[in-house]
Structure formats: C-alpha cells, structure tokens
Write a structure and sequence with these properties.
The protein is built from six helices and seven strands, in the order αβααββαβαββαβ. It has helices spanning 2-12, 26-33, 35-52, 78-97, 105-108, 138-154; strands spanning 16-23, 58-63, 66-71, 100-102, 118-120, 124-131, 160-162. Helix content is 47%, strand content 22%. It is α+β, with helices and mostly antiparallel strands. Helix 2 packs across helix 3 and helix 3 packs across helix 4.
Length: 165
C-alpha cells in the first residue's frame, strides 16, 4: 500500500507523511496485567488511531506495539504538509492519552461478575517523515520515521518528533 501511495502522490505532485507510533512503556503494562489486557489495549489503540485520521488514511500495526499511519493527501507544499501532519500526530497523542478502563481479561471472558477494573493511562511516541520526492524509497522513509520516533522517546516520550531531512 505504501508503494502504491508513493507512486500516486508523485503522479499528483502531492506531499504525504508517514507516522511511526510506539506505545510508551507497553511492556510493563503487558507484564503487570497480562497478555489479554495487552491485546485489548492494542485493539483500543488501533481504534483510537483510526478515529484520529481520515477514512482514506492507512493505519497498520507493524507488530508488538508499533503502528504506522500513512497520510497521502497533505497538499502540494511541504511546509504546509508538515503543519498538517503535526496536527494529525498531536490529535493521535491526545486520543491515546485518554484513560482506558478494561475489565480483568479473565473475568471479561467468563460468566462471573468482574471483581476489578483496571484504569490504564498510557501514551505514545510518534516519529514523522514528510515526503514529496518522486523517487521516495519506502524502506528509507520507514527508517527515517522510525529514527524520528526513537528521538521522540529519547526527548521524553509522549511527543512527536520530525525526521530532519
């Protein structure tokens, strides 16, 4: 899908962006509450990301707690596209930061009344790369978005970092 989107953007002369998201401190949450909770959390994160972007934007879970968002319609100017991508990325940050209440996984899958609710507060770090190059390389763009995401983590997590071109 990324290859198709890159070619379509180049053909239309439009700018796009790739957002790489990674949940902050997911492993301790998964270890504390169990993999059932972790799976439910990942499903909710996917819904929240999807709700934060346009229907035509592409949201993919890479694996673990990493997601990629592909935004293809950011106009023709890279400067404007960067601002628009930042708006989307911050919308996602805010959506993911909303508390989530999950039933104990074992209880949610049985007929017993739940005995405990877990309110989870979590965040994510997002790396963004804006692309406009007709020769944009998928793997290079993903690597740059990943590098920016790790910079966001290094800078304190729960934030957005842009790849410096």
């Amino acid at each position: 899908e990324l290859e198709v989107a890159l070619k379509a953007n180049a053909k239309r002369g439009e700018v796009g962006a790739i957002l790489m998201l990674d949940l902050d401190h997911f492993k301790p949450l998964n270890d504390r509450y169990g993999h059932g909770y972790g799976d439910e959390l990942l499903k909710e994160v996917a819904f929240r990301i999807k709700d934060s972007v346009k229907a035509e934007d592409i949201v993919v879970r890479l694996g673990g707690d990493e997601f990629v968002v592909l935004i293809t319609d950011l106009g023709r100017e890279a400067k404007d596209a960067r601002v628009k991508a930042a708006v989307v990325a911050n919308r996602i940050l805010n959506e993911i930061a909303r508390p989530l209440t999950l039933l104990p996984y074992a209880m949610a899958h049985s007929e017993q009344e739940p005995k405990e609710l877990a309110e989870l507060n979590f965040s994510c770090s997002i790396g963004v790369v804006v692309y406009a190059d007709k020769e944009a390389d998928r793997d290079a763009l993903l690597k740059r978005a990943d590098t920016a995401m790790y910079q966001a983590k290094k800078d304190g997590r729960n934030r957005v970092a842009f790849c410096q071109a």
